[in-house]
Write a structure and sequence with these properties.
CATH class of the largest domain: Alpha Beta
CATH architecture of the largest domain: 3-Layer(bba) Sandwich
CATH superfamily of the largest domain: FAD/NAD(P)-binding domain
Radius of gyration: 22 Å
Shape: globular
Number of strands: 19
Distance between the termini: 55 Å
Number of domains: 2
Largest sheet: 7 strands, mixed
Structural class: alpha+beta
Length: 445
């Protein structure tokens, strides 16, 4: 319960801040978009810094246990993995920790590992063309790539405000155990997912949420151990009516899904709860989801343990380290991508990514570079799910491979603009196009 709070303001005293560093590009947010942006910026030749609030990289992918690259094949079963995202899969595969479901719905995998035929409460064919990465190993893959690219990494560091002079962003203020400090930069990439950085710049943005979309959901994930999964499968197959009754009871606690994912042992499974209707940008709502979501986790486990064969000896051995979210602020950019654009396969003169859309009029949908550029300020790009888009388009595009592609484009653009001494909005797209191809984005050819 939120108690009544005083309706008053205070004046924060001015103070001098230590400038910790001055770089070409600073990226805020170390999730898939942010890591792709930082690594690609550094590989393009820019001195690059990456700021991440957690003690590890991966953002929602690792902290929120959202680690599936879903349905990434098109109708021809050609995988739509490009650049840095493809490199993540290849590196994980080389360590025997990338798992793939076949495009035809059969169970097969990378490096001799196999999906269970009953991977989740969904049918196997609904997971075709997906790749699952090992959550813990993925943290090492990301940090290794950042280190190899010579990115200056700041963990346990909260990017909290842009430095702005007139219409030009000049860097970022951040908080950490070392206090409040600043990093100056030619260009800033906001890869926070929620637009936390451009949200401090005094510009307009779209923070509305449509509860019809999954992007309005929050999620708490738990993992259970000591499950006799074969016993559970036998029960589910032999007594489906009782299992449906149990699912109905569990869904009263929130949207429910049991997942048997291949990075966990046979006796360990994930339980996902989605909570609809709360605001991603409200601290009160986020607290509520964290507290009540974990209560729901405990209640869910109690029901499973008491009523479902195979769960009698199970226990909760961890929960996700952060609440799963899929939406927040959306940039108002030079171009706003709409669902109609995606369904029509609208072409742009400055595409940075393309991907298949089921049932669309065209085989591929496109996102332009202009959707990363704010209308009102220079020196900043938004990459990942906070790009300029309507709610429907955002709900479709905010997946890990697409966020990675946007991050890679933003990092390259920020580095090139710094090198050429031009603004981000005036960058010659031909340079960006060429460098993206050099870094493994073949769809622009």
């Amino acid at each position: 319960m939120v108690r009544n709070r005083p309706n008053q303001t205070i004046l924060e005293p001015p103070r001098e801040l230590n400038v910790l560093d001055e770089v070409d590009v600073v990226v805020v947010g170390g999730g898939p978009a942010g890591v792709a942006a930082a690594v690609s910026s550094a590989r393009t030749g820019a001195e690059t810094a990456l700021i991440e609030r957690s003690g590890f990289l991966g953002g929602m992918a690792t902290g929120g246990s959202v680690i599936i690259l879903p349905q990434i094949d098109d109708a021809s079963k050609t995988y739509q993995l490009n650049g840095i995202c493809r490199e993540w899969v290849e590196r994980s595969s080389s360590m025997d920790r990338a798992f793939q479901s076949a495009g035809d719905g059969t169970a097969e995998s990378l490096n001799k590992n196999h999906w269970r035929s009953s991977m989740s409460s969904r049918k196997m064919e609904q997971s075709h063309g997906s790749i699952h990465l090992d959550l813990e190993l993925f943290k090492f893959v990301l940090s290794s790539m950042v280190e190899e690219a010579d990115v200056e990494l700041f963990l346990h560091t909260w990017g909290c405000q842009v430095l702005r002079k007139e219409n030009q962003v000049q860097g970022v203020i951040f908080e950490s155990k070392s206090g409040r400090q600043a990093i100056l930069a030619d260009n800033v990439v906001d890869a926070t997912g929620d637009g936390d950085i451009f949200g401090t710049a005094g510009i307009n943005f779209n923070g509305s949420m449509d509860h019809e979309f999954w992007s309005s959901m929050r999620r708490v994930v738990m993992r259970l151990g000591s499950i006799d999964y074969q016993k559970f499968l036998d029960f589910k197959n032999n007594d489906p009516e009782k299992w449906r009754d149990t699912i109905a009871k569990l869904k009263k606690l929130g949207q429910f899904r049991l997942q048997s994912l291949p990075d966990t042992p046979e006796d360990a499974k994930r339980i996902h709860h989605w909570v609809p209707g709360e605001r991603h940008l409200s601290i009160d709502d986020l607290i509520w989801v964290e507290v009540d979501g974990r209560k729901a986790v405990l209640a869910t486990h109690d029901i499973l343990k008491m009523e479902v064969p195979g769960f009698e000896n199970s226990f909760i051995f961890d929960t996700s380290s952060q609440t799963g979210t899929r939406g927040g602020r959306r940039l108002i950019g030079e171009y706003m991508v709409t669902m109609q654009d995606l369904q029509d396969g609208k072409n742009h003169q400055d595409p940075i990514m393309s991907f298949p859309v089921s049932g669309a009029a065209s085989s591929l949908a496109h996102v332009p570079y202009r959707a990363l550029i704010p209308k009102e300020i220079d020196g900043l790009l938004a990459a990942g799910r906070c790009f300029s888009s309507d709610a429907a388009a955002n709900d479709l595009v905010n997946r890990i491979p697409y966020c990675s592609d946007m991050g890679q484009a933003a990092g390259i653009a920020a580095a090139l603009a710094s090198e050429k001494g031009v603004s981000l909005r005036n960058l010659d797209y031909r340079l960006l196009n060429w460098q993206m191809k050099e870094q493994g984005i073949p769809f622009l050819e």
